[in-house]
Amino acid sequence: MPTEPETNYDPSLGSKFIFVTGGVMSGLGKGITAASTGRLLKNAGFDVTAVKIDPYLNVDAGTMNPYQHGEVYVLEDGGEVDLDLGNYERFLDEEMTSEHNITTGKTYQHVIEKERAGDYLGKTVQIIPHITDDIKRRIREAAEGTDVCIVEVGGTVGDIEGMPYLEALRQFAHEEPEENVLFVHVTLVPYSKNGEQKTKPTQHSVKEVRSIGLQPDVIVGRCEDKLEPSTKEKIALFCDIPTDAVFSNPDVEDVYHVPLMVEEEGLDQYVLEHFGLAEEALPEGERANEWRDVVTTEKDGEVDVALVGKYDLEDAYMSIRESLKHAGFELGVDVNVHWVAADEMADHHTERLQESDAVIVPGGFGMRGTEGKIEAVRYARENDVPFLGLCLGFQMAVVEYARNALGLEGAHSAEMDEDTPHPVIDILPEQYEVENMGGTMRLGEHTTVIEPETLAYELYGDTSCSERHRHRYEVNPEYFEHFEDEPLVFSGTAGNRMEILELEDHPYFLGTQFHPEYKSRPGRPSPPFLGLIEAVLAGERDEIEYDEEVTH
Ligand code: GLN
C-alpha cells in the first residue's frame, strides 16, 4: 500500500515558490544564497520554508559517507538529511521535516510501491507523468501553509539525474499563476588572467537551462567581487532578463553575512515585487534586525578548540563548527577550530591538544581513531581542560573513565570490540533485531530529564531538555552501579538511558549522548557549546587574576 496520501492542492491558496538551480559547477553556495534570501523575507514578515532536492538514488543521507557528502544532518522528526537542510534551519530558524528533503530514492520508492499496489490501474508507469507528479506533490505538501517556499535543486543543470526535477519544475510553473513562481539561476563568474569578469560560462549555463524549457527570472553571479555594471549588462543581454534582475554574490568573510550582502544588492526586494508581496511586507524600518546584530557582534579575543575526529573536512562536522560560531557570537569571541586526526593521536596529540583551549570529541562510527579519541578525553580530564563529548564522544568519555578511573581493564564499546571484558557501552536493546542500516538508529528528538543542581541544569536552566539523537549504542545498564559515588555523574537521563555525563571538580567536562549541535542557531546558541566557551573564558580570567596577584 502507498504510505503517503495524495493531496488535492489548490494553487489559489497561494504559496509563492522560488526555484533555485545552479550552473557551471557545484559548490557555489546556492543554498546559502537561497537561505539568505529566505531569511530576509522572514524578516519582512513572511512565513518561509525550504525544500532541498537531492537527485541521488539514496533514499536519504543516513547511509552516506561524510567524507563525500559532508555531515548527515538530523531533523526533529528523525530524518537523516543533506547538510543544506541544516543551513536552512539555521538561516530561517524554522524546523524542517524529512519531507523537506526530496531524493530520487524516496520518489521512486513511493511510485514503485504504488505500482505494486495496483494504484496505476494498468497504466504504463513512467518518469513523465508519474515521477514528475510525485515530485510536484511533494513540493506542494512541503510548502503548505507557508507564504514562500524555496526549492533548491542540488547539482548542476545538465546533470542526467536532475532532469526529471527540472521537468517537474517546468510543469509546476506552467500550472501556477505566473507571479507565484520565480526561477533563480546561480552561476560562476570567473576572472580572466587580465582581471576581467567573464560571462561566457554563465551564458552557456543559461543556454542549457533554456534548452530544458526554463527561463531564469533572476541570475546570481558568484564571483570573488561584486559584478561590475558592464558584467551585469552583458549577462542581462545574453540571457534575456532585465539588468536589475542580475545580482552579485561576492565572497564574504562569513556565511552569516550573506543575508546582509543579498539585502544590499536588493535581491529580496526584487523577489517581493515579483511576487506582488512588496505592499504586504513590513516597512523597512520595522523589519526584524536581530540577525544583523548577532552576526556583526564585535569580537574581542579568540578561543582555540581542538576537534578530535576522523575527517579533516570542514563539511563533515559542519553543525559543530556552526554551533561554536554561535557561541562565539554570544560571547564576542572568534572560535577557531583545529582538526586533530584521531588516528594519529599517538604521535603528536599532546602538542596539538596543548595548543588548544578546549577539546571536542564529536560523533562517529566504527573503530578508526577510537584509541586517539579516548586519549584526548583522558588528556582533557586529567589536565582540567574544558571538554565536550558528543554522542560517540560521550561514549568514549565513559570508556576512558571506566578504564582509567574505575580500573575496568579493557573496557570498551561493543561497537568497537565485541569481545571486550567490560562492554560499558552496548547496543540498544531494541537494535538487536535490526538488520537494515538506513533509518534504523535511535533518531530525532527525545526528551532528557535533568538532575537539579548539576552543570547540565545550570546550562539548560531547566529540569529537561529536548535534543536530537542518532545512535545505536548506549551506556550499558549493567555498569550503572560502577559509577555510583563517583565524581563522574550522569546528570541527564531518559528512563534507563544515560544522556548527559559530567565530572565534578573539573572546570567543564560534559558529554551528551544526543547531538546538541543540530539545534544551535545564531542568536540562540546551544547550551553545551556556550558553556564550553564560557568555561574557557572563565579560565582565562582566572589566569589573569592569578597573574595580577603575582605581580602585585
Ligand atoms: N557509533 C555510536 C552509536 O551508534 C555513536 C553514534 C554517533 O556518534 N552519532 O551509538
TrEMBL record:
Pfam families recorded: CTP_synth_N (PF06418), GATase (PF00117)
UniProt GO cellular component terms: cytoophidium
A single GO molecular function term of this UniProt record: CTP synthase activity
Residue positions binding ATP: 27-32, 84, 252
Binding annotation for CTP: 26, 159-161, 198-203, 234
Binding site residues for Mg(2+): 84, 152
Residues the record marks as active site: 391, 515, 517
UniProt region (Amidoligase domain), positions on chain: 1-277
Binding residues annotated for L-glutamine, in chain numbering: 67, 364, 392-395, 415, 472
Stored SUPFAM superfamilies: Class I glutamine amidotransferase-like, P-loop containing nucleoside triphosphate hydrolases
Glutamine amidotransferase domain residues: 314-534
Activity regulation description: Allosterically activated by GTP, when glutamine is the substrate; GTP has no effect on the reaction when ammonia is the substrate. The allosteric effector GTP functions by stabilizing the protein conformation that binds the tetrahedral intermediate(s) formed during glutamine hydrolysis. Inhibited by the product CTP, via allosteric rather than competitive inhibition.
Pathway: Pyrimidine metabolism; CTP biosynthesis via de novo pathway; CTP from UDP: step 2/2
Residues given in the record as UTP binding sites: 26, 198-203, 234
CTP synthase N-terminal domain span: 16-277
GO BP annotations listed: 'de novo' CTP biosynthetic process
Sorted UniProt keywords: ATP-binding, Glutamine amidotransferase, Ligase, Magnesium, Metal-binding, Nucleotide-binding, Pyrimidine biosynthesis
InterPro entries: Class_I_gatase-like, CTP_synthase, CTP_synthase_N, GATASE, GATase1_CTP_Synthase, P-loop_NTPase
Subunit annotation: Homotetramer.
Note: CTPSs have evolved a hybrid strategy for distinguishing between UTP and CTP. The overlapping regions of the product feedback inhibitory and substrate sites recognize a common feature in both compounds, the triphosphate moiety. To differentiate isosteric substrate and product pyrimidine rings, an additional pocket far from the expected kinase/ligase catalytic site, specifically recognizes the cytosine and ribose portions of the product inhibitor.
Protein family membership: Belongs to the CTP synthase family.
UniProt protein name: CTP synthase
Organism in which the protein naturally occurs: Natribaculum luteum
